[in-house]
Amino acid sequence: MAGEIRVAIAGLGNCASALIQGVEYYRDRLELNIPGIMHVDFGGYYIRDIKFVAAFEVNKLKIGKDISEAIWADPNCCARFCKVPTQNVKVLPGPLSDGVAPHMKEAFHAYDGFEPVDVAEVLREREADILINYLPVGSYEGSRLYAKAAIEAGCAFVNCIPEFIASDPDWGRRFEEAGLPVAGDDVKSQLGATILHRALVELFHQRGVRVDSTYQLNIGGNTDFLNMTREERLSSKRISKTEAVKSLLPYPFPTRIGPSDYVPFLGDKKICYIKINGRGFGELPMTLEVKLTVEDSPNSAGVVIDVIRAVKLALDRGISGPLLSISSYAFKHPPVQVTDEVARRWVEEFIEGKRDR
Hints:
Blueprint: E1 5-10, H1 14-25, E2 50-57, H2 67-70, E3 92-93, H3 119-125, E4 130-133, H4 140-153, E5 156-159, H5 169-177, E6 181-184, H6 193-206, E7 210-220, H7 223-227, H8 235-246, E8 255-262, E9 269-279, E10 285-295, H9 298-317, E11 321-322, H10 324-330, H11 340-352
Parallel strand pairs: 1-2, 1-4, 2-3, 4-5, 5-6, 6-11, 7-8
Antiparallel strand pairs: 7-9, 9-10
Helix pairs in contact: 1-9, 3-4, 6-8, 10-11
């Protein structure tokens, strides 16, 4: 028995809802080839070993509620695929910081009558192993505030948003000096726009087709897309998604990649359009166009379940600093960009103890 993994969450939005539902949904399933799960056994850890011990929010409709209830509070719109029993973990008021953009105060129901808790103190009291950052895109200060609190509390950090922590050499050094692992940045979906785009661009390259240009347009109706209607909130998102694709080829090519529009009636559904223009034999043109429709938030939860267990393995083994294997496998902007095939091999080697990070 490997023991439990004590997890705290910053930002109890749709992604957190999918993760919490998923841990309950898959708790007793141990068979191979389960839909939605990449690793049933991850180095001796199973999904049932994940235990949520703290949650931080700025939404006054969520604060004070058990997380099993708070994940359904407005504006969350994640698909309901599992009834979550009471977890005995009440949502605590986190710092507002820059997590709430001016145009999002009403949508996020931002509190004005709560005193934010001391995040590091709560993490210590709850004996959290890992803190997951699910703050809104554009939370530059907020992400660093929670990363600092994790270090102060002796807690590992998983950065799921496109603020550069694990891939920033300075923050990587801070976690290494603290003897703590960090993974990130900007989580990939299990089969989403970025991972599909990468696979297609890599296929073009492997088959000798020159990529002349490509775009990836994404639309959705959750608050993530509403938040990103302001360009200043998504600059790092564009960088993260663009580098994830452009890093695969040895030559430059024009791109336009990133969120494109907010369509409220789509809810948590995300629609992606990818187009690749290239030249094949005789330099004759070819064009590929793809449309992908997914439930946005659950599409990343299975990935994060693997990340949680990888980070706990690192804690068990005394590994500190940026985790290159799981970061390259699970995130768009890791410390080191490699192909998805290499990243998966690294993860399997890490599980087996053949890689130290």
